[in-house]
Design brief:
Structural class: alpha+beta
Strand content: 15-25%
Largest sheet: 6 strands, antiparallel
Bound molecules: adenosine-5'-diphosphate
Radius of gyration: 56 Å
Number of helices: 9
Number of strands: 13
Shape: rod-shaped
Oligomer: single chain
Helix content: 40-55%
Length: 412
Amino acid sequence: MLFEAVSEGVIVVNNEQVIVSTNASAEHMFGYEKNELMGRHLNILIPHEYHAGHAAHVDGFMEHKESRQMGRGRDLFGAHKSGHAFPVEAGLNPLEINGESFVMALVIDISIRKQQEHQLQELNNQLEIKVSERTKALSDTVEELKIVNQERDAEIKKRIEAQNKTKNALKKEKELNELKTKFLSLVSHEFKTPLSGILTSAMLLGKYKLTEQQEKRDKHIKTISDKVHYLNNILNDFLSIEKLETGKINYKFSTFKVSKVVNEVVYNANMLLKEGQEIKYPENIDDYSLFQDEKCLELALSNLVHNAIKYSPENTLVDIQIVQDAKNTIFKIKDNGIGIPINDHKNIFNRYFRAENALLTQGTGIGLNIVKSHLQNLGGTISFTSEENKGSEFIITLPNVVDKEMAIGHMF
Ligand code: ADP
């Protein structure tokens, strides 16, 4: 009764694996009538291809004889009477009755479970395929987006470049306008005084007709020529600014003696000296040579020496010192003049800037700015120390040999 009540199929075989008992579940599972399996060999319930393997397993089981789950690690199949095989799970229980050995197998048809497992596997596979398809689509989109981004970045870069070009052009235009305005206001201020001086001297010249008045005539001729020089310098400064701005300067490099330039500068500056002023300069510098732009060095030195004279009172000394080492030549121009107020130090090299204590002296605020630009172009530097009412010292450092690339860049 117990046999019949359980839902699992129960099959009992003897030592020879002949079926001695089955329950209704087992008969139904394998498609047999009641008692139809009695006396048949167990092989009838096992698909052909598993017969050999099964025999070996039975031998092993009979030796150890203990209850266990059958077919661990491999799929088991039962043979239905109609010929088809179906998946099963089976548990084996050895038993002994009256000294005779039997094995009772509990069998479950797991077709539906296997089918579900299979479907699940199928679904999983499909899911995986879908996931990998989606992943690929996603990475394709990311790649496309990257390309779009790159194109957009390039476009933005181009726009910024164009914007910068326009900005620069506008800035140049503004600066040029500013230069024109400054020039006009400068012309009206700075040109008027020397021009009226020239006019006066020219008028007076006409009046000194007597031979013995030659001294007076000479004085006025000197005034005229000084003032023309002065105006010429201002004009030259303006032209230099334009050239420096537009990069249209052709530096001319050559080897020359430092003493030649210094003598020239001192000779010209001597004519500008005030009463009792004196220029001291080194005379033992015949060994110093430079491969540089001679005219630029002359311009820089004469600017500094002229300023030293201009911004110092009578009876003072302008001291020029020059030293040369293996790499650089250092020029120091020191005066005992009005000095530069500390607050103005930071602006001294700015174009058009003039210190507050210099406003009564004629000037344009252009000279130092030009000198600094030229020196930078030639690989040099300019600096200064100054104390108001005590004096100033300007220091130029210039490489003995101009940088080759710089020379090639500017030499024609
Ligand atoms: P400028 O002399 O025509 O005004 P610079 O560019 O040569 O123009 O000089 C700028 C300013 O620097 C001057 O206006 C002056 O205030 C100050 N400066 C230059 N050199 C000296 C100096 N040796 N002593 C005092 N102030 C100076």
